[in-house]
Structure formats: C-alpha cells, structure tokens
Amino acid sequence: MTAFTAILVDGYRELVAKNLFTLSMILSLLVVAVIGIGGLNEQGVTILGFTIEVPFVNSNIFTPADFYKLMFNSVGVKFWLGWLACLLALVSSAGMFPEMVSSGVVENMLSRPLPRWRLYIYKFTAGLLFTSLQMTVFCMASFLVIGLRGGAWEPGLFLAIPLVTLLYSYLFAMSALLGTITRSAIAALLLTILFWGFLFTVNSAEFLLNGFRISSIKECEAIQALMEKRKKENPEVDVSDLESEFDRNQSALSNLALWHRVVFAVKTVFPKTDETTSLLQRWTLEASNMKDEGDDDAEEVAATAQKQRRRGETSFGNSRAKQREVNLAHEADQRSRGVGWILGTSVAFEIFTLGLGCWLFSRRDF
Q: Are 152 and 196 within 8 A, CB to CB?
C-alpha cells in the first residue's frame, strides 16, 4: 500500500504540474453550468431569461426533471464525458508510462522491492483514479443541478462514474501499452486516438449493416404479406412481379447477413465504446422521455415503392415496409445485446492489453 500511495502522489504531482487535471475539472463544471442555465417555458427553451422557440421542446411536452436529465445525457454524457473529457484525460495521461520507462525514472522506481507487473498495474490504477475523480465532480454537480432546478433527485446519475471510467480504461490500457513500447507520449496519444477511431468505424459499419439487414428482412416480410393478400382476394392473380422483387431482396439479405456477421465478429473482439456510453442512457432516461414516431402514411409508402420499381431500384426496407417498424426492430435488436456481451468482451480485451503491457514491461531491459 505504501508503494501504491507513493505512485499515486507522484502521478498527482505530474498531472497538476501540467495543469491539465485542473483544466479538466474546470471544464467539467462549466459543462454543468451550461446545462444549469437552460430552462423551459410554454414557448420553448430559456437561456438567461431569453426564450428560444422550439416547437417540440417546451414545458407542455417535457417536465423540468425530464428536460435536465435529457440535457445530462445528450450534452453531459454523450458530448462531454463520452468524447471530450476522455480525450482530455488521454492527453493528460499519455506521458505517464513513457516517462515511467524513461532513463533515470525507471531505475528509481525499479529500486523499490516491488514486482514489475505490480508497478505497471499501480501506475494504471492511479491514472484511472484521477479520471474517476473528474467524473465524480461532474456527476455530483449534475445531481445538484437536476435536483435544484428540475426538482428530481436522481442517484442513478452516478452510474456515469463507473461506466465512463470503464470507457476510459479501454483507451488508457491501449495508451499504456503503446507508451511502454514507443516510449513517446505523442506517439502513444496519436496511436490511441487512431485506435479509438478504428473502434468508431467498426461500430458505425456494424450499426449500418445491421440496419440494412433488418430493413431487408422487414421488406421481405411486407412483400410476402402482400402476395398472400392478393392471392386471398383472387387466387388466379399474377404475382410474378412480387416474386421477382422478393427474390432480389432475399439475395440482398443473404449478402447483408454475411457481411454483418463478419463485422460483428470483429466488433465482438474489441472494446464497445459506444455501447458502454449508451448503457448509461438506457438506464437513466425514463420511458416517458421516449416518444414513438407516428405510423407512415400508407399512400406515401405505396407511392415510394412504385417510384423505386419504375427506376429499377432494390429497396432495403423503405418502399413497402413501414419505416417506423424498421426503426423499432433495429432499436430492439440493439437493446437485446446484454450487458455481459457489451462489458464482458470489452473488459476481456482490456485485460489482454494490460497483460501484454505487464509482460513487456517485466521483460524489457532498462
């Protein structure tokens, strides 16, 4: 415990000397202040006494509590904690491991009666503690704003602390490994950001492919239902055009399903950054905040289908299938992915990354 305390103090002094730790705390409070200065009236959103008319965001639709919780998730979690705060934390901590393995510093640290792998884990844990402290300050300030301004005291907001810290730990584990290998803070930071961009690309590709796959399934179901309806009304009716359309969509569905399985397998191996932050929204936003879209107009759907068939286009769900049904099915499929898959596979990759970093640090000659 004494060695860990010494590493914690050294890490704190290092971050304070760079002023980035203090800056991140100040920016976190500023984000909360931005959330707190907003309000609602019957016309729309109010900011410092000025009213901005927003048709679908006013006191007739949202209660103050729902409005501030929505702001917390949209601005605080997705925009600040999910992106900028993590990026700032990576910038401030990128030099922790390169400086630890630099000449002079590492010899002093290795002189302590401590296994190298434990020293590596202690340094990593110290970085996570500083990030969790930033999350705690932000969540406490948000808790007070929602309670005082919205009249709702929601302890569920503090779920942001472990979830966003876990999100940061995925990236920090990679930053620590790259910093140990390259011994360069700039290289570790840039490569970690590239890794983050890779995760975002894989997630976006899987999300789009899954959406097209589900749209194609719904399209096939809609065509099949229409064929059955026509045959029921007139057993002698010619449905060859629908059969051809069904075959085209079935072929497209097979290709989409294949590519989705490939991308999904790749995504399963790596950390789920977007799903981790989405868990917070799923657990803290109340069902009353989610408004279902209205049904698509049948005539408009039929007209769109006719235009696409005239142009010879292959539809993936928006010609005969109702877009609302497609969206709901896509959302249900995303929500069906359990916490065990989202967090379990992500933590497994993080453990592998940490283990590889500990192994390299233990075997390297200094």
A: no
- Those residues with Cβ within 8 angstroms of residue 164's Cβ, 6 or more apart along the chain or in another chain: 77, 81, 82, 85, 86, 135, 277, 280
Distance CA 263, CA 90 (A): 27
191 beta partners: none
Reported as a single tens digit per residue, the pLDDT across 297-339 is 444 444 444 444 444 444 444 556 677 778 888 888 888 888 8
Q: What is the dihedral of CA 212, 213, 215, 219, to 10 degrees?
A: 130
Q: What is the pTM of this model?
A: 0.80
The CA-CA-CA angle for residues 265, 266, 267, to 5°, reads: 90
DSSP annotation of 296 = P
| Residue 262: HSE in the Cβ half-sphere, 13 Å Cα cutoff | 8
pLDDT at position 320: 63
Spatial separation of the C-alpha atoms in residues 72 and 88, rounded to whole Å? 19
Question: Residues for the chain: how many in total?
Answer: 366
